[in-house]
Design goal:
two-stranded antiparallel sheet, rod-shaped, 25% strand, six-stranded antiparallel sheet, alpha+beta, single chain
């Protein structure tokens, strides 16, 4: 064989090897594509499950938050004073009526005091009640030589001994101290209380 023929056979062999290598490469590509197609739905399923899990969890959190808000609104709406600006209580022949700032929450009452809570600033709350006692339906009343004023409501037949506003964190406690003792016996009842406290 001469050199030309040897070169041509070598070229032909190289071409053939190249074609075979190319075929193998194409076959590998196609196999990997089919594998990817088979793997892709699995990945999608996993991803979908995760997304569904997040959606369920978010929906549950939203339901819990809505329930908490509804319960809070129910308690607020059922409160005696939160949506009102006045509190009224009847004791025997006396009818106690106290004006309040809006959104004042009624806590409880006994024979000598009524307790409310509010988020309003202490100074505004204090100013509201000072103004209410000075300009409201009260007559200022003093016992003997005492300089401490008491506020008598002739129509309701009761005394306001004082209104205290105390602060604990953001919540302010309003304590209304009152008495339904008869007008003529009021000072004597105060003296008896002082004597009882001293005896204790």
């Amino acid at each position: 064989m001469d050199k030309k023929e040897v070169k041509e056979t070598k070229k032909a062999k190289k071409k053939e090897l190249h074609k075979k290598a190319h075929k193998v490469h194409e076959e590998i590509k196609e196999e990997s594509k089919t594998e990817e197609v088979a793997v892709e739905p699995k990945k999608r399923k996993r991803r979908n499950k995760k997304v569904e899990g997040y959606k369920r969890r978010n929906a549950l959190v939203e339901v819990i938050i809505v329930c908490i808000i509804l319960v809070a609104l129910f308690f607020v709406a059922c409160n005696k004073t939160f949506l009102k600006t006045n509190y009224t209580k009847e004791i025997g022949s006396s009818k106690i009526s106290i004006d309040l700032p809006r959104f004042t929450y009624y806590v409880g009452a006994d024979d000598e005091k009524i307790v409310f809570k509010t988020l309003r600033k202490s100074q505004y709350t204090r100013r509201f009640f000072d103004n209410y006692l000075e300009t409201g339906p009260f007559d200022v009343y003093y016992c003997g030589n005492s300089t401490e004023p008491y506020y008598y409501n002739e129509e309701g037949k009761y005394f306001i001994l004082g209104i205290d506003v105390t602060k604990k964190f953001a919540v302010k406690t309003i304590t209304v101290r009152y008495s339904t003792v008869d007008y003529d016996l009021f000072c004597d009842s105060l003296n008896e209380k002082v004597e009882d406290n001293e005896a204790k």
